[in-house]
């Protein structure tokens, strides 16, 4: 059924650390309006409701039943993503989830199928590749600026959480690890640039079995590590490009780039894929120095939350625009393929793992959908 609507209504599920970046970030999109929020902790939900001026609901079901809710956004921890997303899909609403899609490929695949059966849109972070950096790098590749892309490298070297986080246990138990925590930004960026991965070979191990927590505000003294924290992988892209990926919580200091593409005509330097809008640089063979590429679309980074987190929301706006017939760039199908790659990296492979999923590269973004007035939508 097609209905007339000025703005798409969004309900927020999970009012923890990242939620402020959504409450503030979604305000920037003319076509969206936050209808309400909920959390297992009513205290947290009330605090967020008061801080951001949003009605608070006692449960997911009450939030979903509220007038005008079209999209439910899952901002719960990774290990809760599967059960919470299942509950959100059961309400019949469209669903967007924070990354990773779920804590494992095996648990995510049935949810993607369920969303399809229910006829609702299902989207997932990361959405940072929709920013000006991801789109500028994509345009450079598509225009053949660096020629044929022969190889790529990505270095996911997030560490030192023990020095500042009061309880980083979640990073060192199932659902955590460098591949699932920060890896989604890197692999989504690579698949956006180079297309789907055909196979992965990876080795993974635990670095230190015990991680002492040293911040004065710590709530735990140390963590027993139960999952690999250091992985090295080779990705064979269907395009023929070969990717080198390091994902580690054991690389404390380094001189590595974030992402680089090595082409027959030059090298493309892609900035931190956890951000939307940093500079993309290129150096063609024989050129004396690196040069910055002019951004092909406007950026999203028009604000930081108090905690210095970049504001979020492009993926939710992308899903809303998909309801009007725009391509769904941050679809769960795309995220499922990315998760299958991440799962293989995170746990290591016994020989070569041939991917069971594939995906289309997301359509390049013109940026126009971001402020589109969503007057006509196909919401049942
Ligand atoms: N914190 C960050 O900097 C950051 C950045 C990018 C993405 N993310 C992603 O955002 C998600 C949330 O991370 P966070 O740091 O905000 O976690 P958090 O633990 O601070 O907050 C999660 C909230 O979800 C609530 N919750 C758990 N189960 C629930 C349920 N069944 N129903 C309703 N509420 C429930 C918890 O009570 C908690 O308030 C994760 O997927 C994470 O990967 C976090």
UniProtKB/TrEMBL annotation:
Domain GFO/IDH/MocA-like oxidoreductase: 135-268
Residue ranges of domain Gfo/Idh/MocA-like oxidoreductase N-terminal in the record: 8-122
Claim: Cell membrane is one of the keywords in the record: no
Disordered: annotated span: 361-380
Highest taxon listed in the record's lineage: Bacteria
Protein name in the entry: Putative dehydrogenase
GO molecular function, one term: oxidoreductase activity
Alphabetical list of PANTHER family matching this protein: BCDNA.GH03377
InterPro entries listed in its UniProt record: Gfo/Idh/MocA-like_OxRdtase_N (IPR000683), Gfo/Idh/MocA_oxidrdct_glycsds (IPR050463), GFO_IDH_MocA-like_dom (IPR055170), NAD(P)-bd_dom_sf (IPR036291)
Polar residues composition-biased segments: 361-371
Keywords in alphabetical order: NAD, Oxidoreductase
Pfam families: GFO_IDH_MocA, GFO_IDH_MocA_C3
């Amino acid at each position: 059924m097609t209905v007339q609507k000025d703005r798409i209504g969004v309900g927020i599920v999970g009012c923890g650390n990242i939620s402020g970046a959504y409450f503030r970030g979604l305000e920037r999109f003319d076509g969206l309006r936050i209808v309400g929020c909920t959390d297992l902790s009513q205290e947290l939900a009330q605090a967020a409701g008061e801080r951001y001026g949003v009605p608070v609901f006692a449960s997911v079901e009450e939030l979903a039943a509220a007038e005008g809710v079209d999209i439910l956004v899952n901002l719960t921890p990774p290990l809760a993503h599967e059960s919470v997303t299942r509950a959100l899909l059961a309400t019949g609403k469209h669903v967007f989830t924070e990354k990773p899609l779920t804590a494992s490929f095996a648990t995510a695949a049935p949810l993607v199928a369920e969303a399809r059966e229910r006829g609702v849109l299902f989207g997932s972070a990361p959405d940072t590749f929709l920013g000006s950096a991801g789109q500028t790098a994509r345009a450079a590749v598509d225009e053949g600026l660096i020629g044929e892309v022969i190889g790529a490298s990505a270095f996911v070297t997030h560490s030192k959480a023990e020095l500042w986080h009061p309880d980083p246990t979640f990073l060192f138990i199932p659902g955590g690890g460098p591949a699932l925590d920060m890896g989604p930004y890197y692999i989504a960026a690579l698949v956006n640039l180079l297309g789907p991965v055909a196979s992965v070979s990876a080795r993974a191990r635990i670095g230190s079995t015990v991680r002492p927590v040293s911040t004065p505000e710590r709530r735990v003294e140390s963590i027993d590590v139960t999952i690999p924290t250091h992985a090295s992988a080779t990705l064979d892209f269907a395009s023929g490009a070969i990717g080198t990926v390091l994902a580690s919580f054991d690389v404390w200091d380094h001189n590595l780039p974030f992402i680089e593409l090595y082409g027959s005509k030059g090298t493309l330097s892609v900035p931190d894929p956890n951000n939307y809008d940093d500079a993309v640089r290129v150096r063609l063979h024989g050129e004396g120095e690196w040069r910055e590429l002019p951004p092909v679309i406007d950026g999203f980074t028009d604000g930081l939350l108090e905690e210095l987190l970049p504001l979020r929301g492009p993926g939710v706006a992308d899903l809303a625009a998909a309801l009007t017939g725009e391509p769904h760039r941050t679809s769960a199908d795309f995220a499922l393929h990315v998760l299958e790659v991440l799962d293989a990296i995170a746990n290591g492979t016994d020989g070569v793992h041939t991917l069971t999923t594939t995906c289309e590269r997301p359509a390049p973004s013109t940026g126009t959908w971001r402020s589109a007035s969503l007057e006509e939508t196909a919401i049942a």
